[in-house]
């Protein structure tokens, strides 16, 4: 990925994240989250993780944000009224940001600079020969089947957590609908 394109997507992602927190209108805040997701998807695609980038757009910027907007409209949230900021929470938040920045600089300064290593597809093909012959064949032909590999890892290694997350999302959606129904007096 060209460096100016990286900085563009990083800036879109960061500005969208700041706007999510800074805007008072819930709908504008949710749409700013879409901008942040689009910037993140651009960064994924720049890292040659095409499947993850497209899923970021389809699932998060598409379906999840439509659900968020639907819930915001269903709950009929109003624009938050402006209050005078208090000094103690502001200083506490700035202290947390400063502490995190110092930790990040300390960790990044001690991280060794490593050279890029290309993937050894032949070794990966041999590792998948028994469990996934289709993936092994694609790897031995020189193709990197990222969709197949993600599906293989998700459904063979993390099937139960994936099902639990699906049930939790369903329960949360049903809970929001039940809580948002107005009680008749």
From TrEMBL:
It is a multi-pass membrane protein. It is found in: Cell membrane. It is an enzyme of class 7 (translocase). The chain crosses the membrane at residues 6-23, 30-51, 57-75, 87-108, 160-179. It comes from the Bacteria. The keyword Ribosomal protein does not apply. Its EC number is 7.1.1.-. One of its GO terms (molecular function) is NADH dehydrogenase (quinone) (non-electrogenic) activity. InterPro entries: NADH_UbQ/plastoQ_OxRdtase_su6, Nuo/plastoQ_OxRdtase_6_NuoJ. It holds the Pfam family Oxidored_q3. It catalyses: a quinone + NADH + 5 H(+)(in) = a quinol + NAD(+) + 4 H(+)(out). PANTHER family: NADH-UBIQUINONE OXIDOREDUCTASE CHAIN 6. NDH-1 shuttles electrons from NADH, via FMN and iron-sulfur (Fe-S) centers, to quinones in the respiratory chain. Couples the redox reaction to proton translocation (for every two electrons transferred, four hydrogen ions are translocated across the cytoplasmic membrane), and thus conserves the redox energy in a proton gradient. Belongs to the complex I subunit 6 family. This is NADH-quinone oxidoreductase subunit J. It comes from Luteolibacter rhizosphaerae.
């Amino acid at each position: 990925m060209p460096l100016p394109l990286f900085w563009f997507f990083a800036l879109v992602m960061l500005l969208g994240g700041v706007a999510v927190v800074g805007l008072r209108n819930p709908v504008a805040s949710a749409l700013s989250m879409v901008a942040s997701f689009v910037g993140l998807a651009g960064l994924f695609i720049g890292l040659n993780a095409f499947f993850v980038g497209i899923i970021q757009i389809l699932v998060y910027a598409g379906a999840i944000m439509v659900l968020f907007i639907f819930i915001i409209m269903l709950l009929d949230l109003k624009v938050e009224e402006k209050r005078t900021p208090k000094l103690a929470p502001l200083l506490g938040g700035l202290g947390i940001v400063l502490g995190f920045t110092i930790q990040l600089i300390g960790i990044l300064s001690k991280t060794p600079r490593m050279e890029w290593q290309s993937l050894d597809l032949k070794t990966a093909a041999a590792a998948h020969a028994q469990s996934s012959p289709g993936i092994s064949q694609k790897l031995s032909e020189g193709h990197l089947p990222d969709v197949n590999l993600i599906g293989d890892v998700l459904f063979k290694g993390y099937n139960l957590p994936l099902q639990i997350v699906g049930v939790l999302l369903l329960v949360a959606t049903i809970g929001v609908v039940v809580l948002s129904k107005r009680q008749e007096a």
